[in-house]
Amino acid sequence: MTVHDTLTNEERLAELDLATLQQLVGLVEYDADSDPFPVIGWDAVVWTVGNATQTAHFFQSAFGMNLVAYSGPETGNRDHKAFVLKSGAVRFVIRGAVDPSSALVAHHAEHGDGVSDIALEVSDVDKCVEHARSVGATILVEPHDETDEYGTVRIATIAAYGDTRHSLVDRRRYEGAYLPGYVPRTGAYQKRPGAPKRVFQALDHVVGNVELGKMDEWVRFYNKVMGFTNMAEFIGDDIATDYSALMSKVVANGNHRVKFPLNEPAIAKKKSQIDEFLEYYNGPGAQHLALATNDIIRSVDALRAEGVEFLDTPDSYYEDPELRARIGEVRVPIEELQKRGILVDRDEDGYLLQIFTQPTGDRPTVFFELIERHGSLGFGKGNFKALFEAIEREQERRGNF
Ligand SMILES: [Fe+2]
Asked: Which segments does the entry list as coiled coil (predicted)?
């Protein structure tokens, strides 16, 4: 079966089409038949947090997501609460311990709020796991069926960097709200008048931070285990300020729905943002999630209206004649971008607009990017220096620089 010209169920439900997805996340055609580990796309980003009840409220009120399903003590799950939220094709699952002896308590004590499972939708769980095992991947949960009155899901889990895992989910025989054991549930939260229908439509990429010297090991893991290919490469001086540096490589699945930039710290005069992350997350983990929007101005205004804080971009960024010349024409006046601190980058394929939030939890770890692509399949390489200088200013304020 080839999957190059099909939409995922989530994309169909979100009324997205292939042309929109090409624009939003750089979807490409490919032949899944020759892929040893065919990934259809993202299934869910599963979070472990200290207070799922309030975090679920935050993602509804501030990020405009909709509650669609729930599992907890009232549904027979005495271990934890889990809230399933959607925005466009994106699914977040927010989990927090109820039972004081839940494994989630230890996970949260160690890592703080963060992403514990980047679940992927696949068409053949057994084939993927068989391949992963044959090249030495750690299988955490063997392929098995989970069934309820809505159908059957085939699922397995493999280990990735740190305590991060990838569940592999085949939900094509399932009609329920999320997984067996979850009940449909809508939120009591009402969107404010004039709020956009959704703040973001799709997930573009999830960045992993790994330890010094481990980036290539994890690139090889995704190459070998998942058949991902290398998209772009940024090394050394590409991502260095006067004080700190990092190295980054990007791997992607065949259709480019799933893109994993992998960062490692590089030796420099001061502590890099990657070192800060590794220290406070207590190991490797997911650093940022890039949310694709087709109107970043509206998205940023909606998020700011709800109090979401972004990294500051200095006015000098927009006034630099060299940068202005390189940016050329974009769909909105530079002044509108400057007002909001939105960054622009351009390459041979087109341009992109992007902006980064402050960390959304207590620890200086996971944060979000909003991205609006116009042809460019890059990750904002031209902005890295300005961005990292902005992060350094925040690290300085936290006493971690
Ligand atoms: Fe990014």
From this structure: none
- The pLDDT score that the predictor gives to residue 272 is 85
d(CA 253, CA 159): 17
Taking residue 386's Cβ as centre, other Cβ atoms within 10 Å add up to 18
Q: What is the C-alpha to C-alpha distance for residues 333 and 347, in angstroms, rounded to an integer? A: 19
| Residue 401, CA distances (Å) to 31, 243, 276, 366 in order | 46, 9, 8, 18
pLDDT 10s digits, 46-61 = 999 999 999 999 999 9
Q: What are phi and psi of 268, to 5 degrees?
A: -155, 180
Residue-wise pLDDT tens digits, 95-149: 999 999 999 999 999 999 999 999 999 999 999 999 999 999 999 999 999 999 9
Mean pLDDT of the chain: 92
Q: How far is the CA of 148 from the centre of ligand 1 (A)?
A: 37
Whole-number Å distance, alpha carbon 368 to ligand 1 midpoint, is 8
Output 46 or 231, whichever has higher pLDDT: 46
Residue at 324: amino acid letter? R
User: Which residue reads 């054991």 in tokens?
Assistant: 181
Place of tokens 């990294």: 311
In the reported structure, the alpha carbon of residue 205 is separated from the centroid of ligand 1 by a whole-number distance in angstroms of 7
CB 83 within 8 A of CB 94: yes
- Residue 292 is encoded by which pair of tokens? 């694709």
Beta strand 66-71 with 183-184 is antiparallel
> What spacing in Å lies between the alpha carbon of 379 and ligand 1's midpoint?
6
| Distance from Cα 240 to the centre of ligand 1, integer Å | 16
Q: Give me the domains of the chain, ranges plus CATH numbers.
A: 36-184 (3.10.180.10), 202-398 (3.10.180.10)
Rounded distance from Cα 6 to ligand 1 centre (Å): 25
Pairing mode of beta strands 202-209, 259-266 = parallel
Q: Is 162 helix (H, G, I), strand (E, B) or coil?
A: coil
